[in-house]
Amino acid sequence: MIGRFGDYGGQFVPETLVPALAELEDAFNAARNDATFQTRLADLSAHFSGRPTPLYFAKRLTEYCGGAKIYLKREDLAHTGAHKINNALGQGLLAQKMNKTRIVAETGAGQHGVASAAVCAMLGLQCIVYMGTEDMRRQAPNVFRMKLLGAEVRGVDAGSATLKDAINEAIRDWVTNVRTTHYLLGSALGPHPYPTMVREFQSVIGVEARAQILDAEKRLPDLLIACVGGGSNAIGLFRAFRGDADVAMLGVEAGGLGIETGKHAARFAEARPGVLHGTYTFVLQNDDGQIRETHSVSAGLDYAAVGPEHVYLFDTERAGYTYATDDEALDAFAKLSQLEGILPALESAHAIAEAIKRARAMRRDQIVLVNLSGRGDKDLQTVMANQ
Amino acid sequence: MNRIDETFLQLKTKHRAALMPYLPLGYPTLDVSAQLIHAVADAGADLIELGVPFSDPLADGPVIQRATHVALQNGMTLTKCLAMVRAARSAGVTIPLTLMGYYNPILRFGIGAFARAVKEVGADGLIVPDLPPEEAGTLDAACRAHDLDLIFLAAPTSPASRIQKIAQATRGFLYLVSVVGVTGAREQIAADLAEFVARVRAATSKPVCVGFGIANAESAKRVAQIADGVIVGSALVAQIGDAANAVTAAQKFVDDLRAAVER
To answer: pTM above 0.90?
Structure first.
């Protein structure tokens, strides 16, 4: 079986794309062992993206919770404001290696679109970003950023006009222009090799965080927490700790208005396997196998499927998955802003919400490490509207 | 020998290409959709490809996207699609019928149960555009167990090694995607189509049918000269969508296509 994590993953795509996926896999495998490529990636990660990002001890948030120590991995401080730059940079360099000069990308919250636009500008590549019109409305500052960075933003009106619909259009564009175009998919989902490749480009998060916490505390954390939309920031954090049996891992999905309302994006809460966008994974769907519309206050978590490796981690009980509702995320947004002077992305606020709950129930000598995957400047409009 | 094999064998003795219209089930309404199957069969279709609607048809262009969206709004489900095939058979449609649908609804229905149900209602084959041979093992086994043809697609981007694999895996016929892209009528047929058909023919003696992009009788005529079958989807769906009387319009369009594929 190609590109499987247990039963999950695979390559469920139209035939036209199969050769392009094979080409991409070859290029990626070659790049992994190519010292020149790795040196260039490391150099740009440091000087363009601003890596390593700090690991920050959230003292006042810790005191507020009165339990475990809370550390934040500050991906919000990476260039363009989120972890998305790690993957965009890696794939941008790969596209150059494959002589593909046209890039298409999808975006939900706009963070991946902004990261792609920035990388394309820096590398001199043409960039087209597909974005649901509902997301364009609620993440307007990022639309403007992408345009300033020279990208063309194409609005998608279909379905619920969010991330899923943007991915559909990006794939259709790729099917049509596959000979000249690379699809810069922004999360650890989609057909093989994307889940593996995106994980590898994001695994720098966990590699850094593991060394940083050992440096700060001389020990590993008890619990890792990250939000899960497609799941790239979570898998990027988790990867380096996979062999550390005493480090628990927790992914936090979007509970939206509550599971009972049906308006959410909590794939693990329903745990129904299916195929969406080329991969076999948990998919929110109705009894007829039609993909359901999802809801979250955060555009980046508002998606019907989850990266297949997360389902594998769930099945093997290596990681747990839970959800935070819109209201809990908004509360956590306010708490982190006021206690630590950090505006988190609404996506990351879901992880913060869960961290607050968990830390309270843990001992003071325990450690929770949260991936603060992005900054919240893009969400001011949404937060203000919800106050 | 099943209906699909028989049809291609007969057409071979007549030296004529098959005409295979595509109809999205449940469009424009459930009732009219049922009538369209008969109308298109009466107008001279040799096989019909019946589209099962899916919420996220990523291999389809705007015309079929819109039609399948309408079908879902009309309450179409996979179960109702099967019922429509059964009704068409009991009302006397005898030509081969293939179902074309994305993989997730089939998975949700259950692969074994689905293959059994497809056979039982009287369809002859399946086309699953997001299921390349590498991922098709379970469905292929279920189709074989119920004597259904699982039809695979080759694309202009497929290298020789994949064309070999696809040609070997496909049953009934090989579905050749004429363009690099999604479904939808194109002004002209692809310039390299003849060369592509020749490459596929070198790999197989199975019937080769061409779809994606065939807009009108003129294109159908040209494709019919080099292929064993001509598949017309979006252009027909657009006729249905634009017409005051969908059934009459479809019948007329298929009449013209049929005349064009006669040699």
So the answer is: yes
Q: Collect the ranges in chain A with pLDDT lower than 70.
A: 1
> Which CATH homologous superfamily contains domain B3-262?
Aldolase class I (3.20.20.70)
Mark yes or no for CB contact B56/A172 under 8 Å. Answer: no
Secondary structure, 3-state, A171-229 = HHHHHHHCCCEEECCCCCCCCCCHHHHHHHHHCHHHHHHHHHHHHHHCCCCCEEEEECC
ipTM, two decimals: 0.96
The answer to whether residue B6 is catalytic is no
CB-based contact B162 A18, cutoff 8 Å: yes
Residue-wise pLDDT tens digits, A280-291? 999 999 999 999
CB contacts, 8 Å: A12 with chain B: 103, 130-132, 135
In a 13 Å sphere around the CA of B194, the CA atoms on its Cβ side amount to 5
The length of chain A is 387
B156–chain A Cβ distance below 8 A for any pair: yes
Averaged pLDDT for residues B150-177: 97
Distance between A182 CA and the closest CA of chain B, angstroms: 15
List the domain boundaries for chain B: 3-262
User: What are the tens digits of pLDDT across the range A149-158?
Assistant: 999 999 999 8
Q: Of A18, A20, A172, which is closest to B182 when you measure between CB atoms? A: A172
Taking only the tens place, the pLDDT of each residue in B2-28 is 999 999 999 999 999 999 999 999 999
Contact A285 B108 (CB under 8 A): yes
